[in-house]
Amino acid sequence: MFVSKSMTRKVVTIAPGAGIFEAYEKMKQHKIRHLPVVDGDNRLLGIVTDRDVRSVMPYELFKDPDLQKSQSKSLADMRIVDIMTSAPTHISPSSTIQDALLLIEEKRIGALPVVDDDGRLKGIISVRDLLRAFTNVLGIGDPGTLLCILVEEKVGQLKRIVDAITEEGVSFGSVLVGRYWDEGKRAVFPYIRTQNVAHIKRKLTQMGFTLLEPMEWYLDQLPSDE
Amino acid sequence: MRRTGFLFDRRYLLHETGPYHPEVPDRLEAVYSGIKAGGLLRKLNQISASVAELKWIETVHDRSYIDRLNDACVAGKKVFDCPDNQICSDTYLTALLAVGGILDTIRMMMQGEIDNAFCAVRPPGHHAEHSEAMGFCYFNNIAIAARYLQIEWHIERVGIIDFDVHHGNGTQHLFEKDPTVFYYSIHQHPSFAYPGTGREFEYGTVDGYGFTKNSPVLPGQGDEEYKRLIQRDLEPAFESFAPEVILVSAGFDGHVDDDMSDICLSTPWYTWMMTRIRAMADRYSQGRLISVLEGGYSLARLPELACQHVEVLLDE
Predict the structure, then answer these.
(1) pTM over 0.90
(2) Where are chain A's structural domains?
(3) Which of A201, B28, B121, B239 has its CA 20 to 30 A from that of B87?
């Protein structure tokens, strides 16, 4: 679960002295939204996003790039160093993807440059990379069935569920636990690698667990902070 | 009234799946008893199975996978790849008989001996991938049927309709790059049901883009939502694709009394669905329609579901 395993290693970068149009073309060509700005020694100086570029380009230029030479002399003179975010939020290759997730959420940004102890750029980890990592963690790329089980909030409940399912020779894609359910309750979401769920549901019910109606599931019960 | 074939063979009961498994031989007994009780047997062209030639299985599956299944059965293994796939020494033979029977049935239809048919086979097929058994399925019966139609009978466009409550991942993956086979599936939403594929945004890939269509349905929904989606998604797609033959992956596990899903379909919905499919076959495919059993685990409901399914095909 380390950033170094989930990040993009071949980073498209740009020099501080490059022009705005070069950045625009690079992002368009590679279908990316973040360009780390590095010096000749691959040290991170800043980051420039497609939003930074768009905010200085007049709308007409998107429609007709030929205008750029004649009508946008000042824009052509503008350098990346003028519009980049200096000393951007970054992360270390040895940080975890949980660190990256929390940092991206806290800073409300789309990507983090990955920088080693010497300040050299090693990669970039974007929201997209994190989504891929967590899709993998959830196991939803593999066939299976998600259950939702309501349990009393006390030690040992998850073990009973895992044991009961394991006894049937069924393996797990993942197990999630909902943190805020009804008072004194938790919701356990095992993603189990079987189609034969009716038998397992019956077994869990006989053990005294409550299986929730699928339409009543909700993974995220944290109050919205919006 | 139409000349309807009914493929059934007692050797389909040989595939044993052990305790606590829903895909049991009694399912076929239930199907047969329902059709018999409805007084339909004498109206049907009864067909028994033959063993499929390996060359047809190989149109869809890797030869080493086919051999691996045979080896597991010969060795007396009880499980193949995953605990869902319970096998016995006769599973390989049963799977070959399922395919062989379906191909014979198709040949009879293409030679004009019958108009359409229901193939009551085990094991089911639509989860089986190129080289992987999944979800009680070993050989992908419907996919092999489509390839047989194309290779042996020079059918260019095959339309597959899969109304089993689970998405037919195997069938979709086998044809997702192929614009000559249209795969349509309506099933319980993959976030709530096995196998976790068949999302609304899966349309096929490369040359096959636009020749796969999925209608995921949320838990608790039933007849009305299914009817709405069939008319919104399936019927326009088949109107533009105009299949020359229609194959149906007929699963009855979306029935309200089937505990394998949270979908609440009634018995009349299945009759409605089959009537719509028959109408599409008349419109585009000269009535050529082969239905192949997939899931459906309610032993109490299978007799009536099978009986009404065949009644629609007979069209008296």
Answers:
(1) no
(2) 3-135, 140-216
(3) A201
